[in-house]
Amino acid sequence: MAEECVVVKTAVQWYGVSPILSASPWMRQAFADLSELRQLKDNWDGYSSPAIESRVLEQAGRVLSALEVEDAPSLSISPVPGGGVQLEWQCAGRELEIEILPDCTLQFLAVFGGGMEEGVVPSPSIDVIRCLFEWLLEG
Amino acid sequence: MARTLPDFESPPVIETVLGVEFSPLARFSIPHFGMFWQTIRADYPNFSVQPPLDPQIEGAGDGKPPKGPGVLIRILGHPPVRCWFINAKNTELVQLQSDRFLFNWRKIVGTEAYPHYDDHTRPVFCREWERFCSFLRDNELGQPQVRQCEITYVNHLEKGQGWQSLADMASIFPCWSGRMTGSFLPVPEAVEIGSGYQLPGGSGRLRITIQPAIRHTDQKEVLQLTLAVRGKPASGNTQDILKWLDLGREWIVRGFTDFTSEAMHKLWRRTV
């Protein structure tokens, strides 16, 4: 199985980290919210969903780190049945959802006006993530 | 194996990297990533495609300050790709691009014991490097012209384990006093430190960096202490590469011990 992976740096290091100095307040809050998801146990939704694996949370952290903006629209982070994580932003009539699936692949849903577009984010995908976020902010 | 260098029962190291940088392999192209993967796939069943690393060649150790990245020119025709080949436990990784070969070990926090260099990471690196050279020979792709070796240790000092705020930095790192001339500035929001040290005989340079960061796997706040040595081995044969890595590793271990306080050594249960 191919492990999809968003890359936020070109370094020899494998462990993903976000430097505190470049982590804006919204990003710190987002990491705190992700940390809460770490506490979920198996069957957290009453429908046999597994706990969310560390690598899924790590992937979510990499997505967030790719968004190098000081101010971001309000972000909602929620667990997805099956062991995934969803990141959701709304901004001036536009809505962007990025879902990290249990196998760490990424899917997006962009909603605008009466339309919507969805797809899989290819790997390595930092540019795609940034393009989606720029689209959201232009709303 | 008897330890001669400083040793700790519970060191904060969470990742080690051993690697070789070489002149771009002229005939190595996209299909060869997959062909090489077939030779190691039983040990590294997962893969990921990454952007390539830029060259990071250290200066000759002539006393001049190290140069910054400057203008980078990537030779056209070489695939701008780096492949990761990952083991099933998600703890070991082979990184390959047309001018770089790296082996990473990482700790999955809370579950893995630290495998010592002599017992594990050195022999595994050696095995994978030999497999790679053998693959190149078998496919008439030329042999790597080694330009540099590198060894990196990444340590995570978790908040709450020996420090609570950056006001405690001085009790971790003796080189940092935290003292100011006046009283205007508050406790810093972040402290980043970078220092460099030449190895003897121009054989390389040790770089030490400290960076407060949030770790993605568990969103914990950590002080990331990275020690990286890069330099040129006597030749490109495997024995000289290993000899250089041994020197680099010695500088990392002794450098780490010098750079951190005795109070932290107690916390990490120093034994030698």
Describe the structure.
The complex is a heterodimer of chains A (139) and B (272). Chain A is of the alpha+beta class and 139 residues long. Chain A has a single domain, classed as Roll (Nuclear Transport Factor 2, Chain: A), CATH 3.10.450. Chain A is built from three helices and six strands. A five-stranded antiparallel sheet of chain A has the order 2-3-4-5-6. In chain A, strand 3 and strand 4 form a beta hairpin. In chain A, helix 1 packs antiparallel against helix 2. The longest helix of chain A is centred in the N-terminal third of the chain and has 13 residues. Chain A is globular. The N terminus of chain A is likely disordered. With 272 residues, chain B is α+β, with helices and mostly antiparallel strands. Chain B has one domain. In chain B, helix 2 runs antiparallel to helix 4. The longest helix of chain B has 22 residues. Chain B is globular. About 2% of the residues of chain B have low confidence. At the A-B interface, strand 1, helix 1 and helix 2 of A face strand 1, strand 2, strand 3, strand 5 and strand 6 of B.
- What's the count of strands of chain A? 6
CATH topology of chain A: Nuclear Transport Factor 2, Chain: A
Report how far apart the termini of chain B are: 13 Å
Low-confidence stretches of chain B: 68-73
Oligomer: heterodimer
**SSE topology string of chain A:** EHHEEEEEH
Largest sheet of chain B: 9 strands, antiparallel
Looking across the biggest beta sheet of chain B, what order are the strands in? 2-3-4-5-1-6-9-8-7
Overall tally of domains of chain A: 1
Averaged pLDDT of chain A, please? 83
Strand order within the widest sheet of chain A?
A: 2-3-4-5-6
Number of helices of chain A: 3
Cα end-to-end separation of chain A: 37 Å
Q: Evaluate the radius of gyration of chain A.
A: 15 Å
What would the principal axes of the Cα set say about the shape of chain A?
A: globular
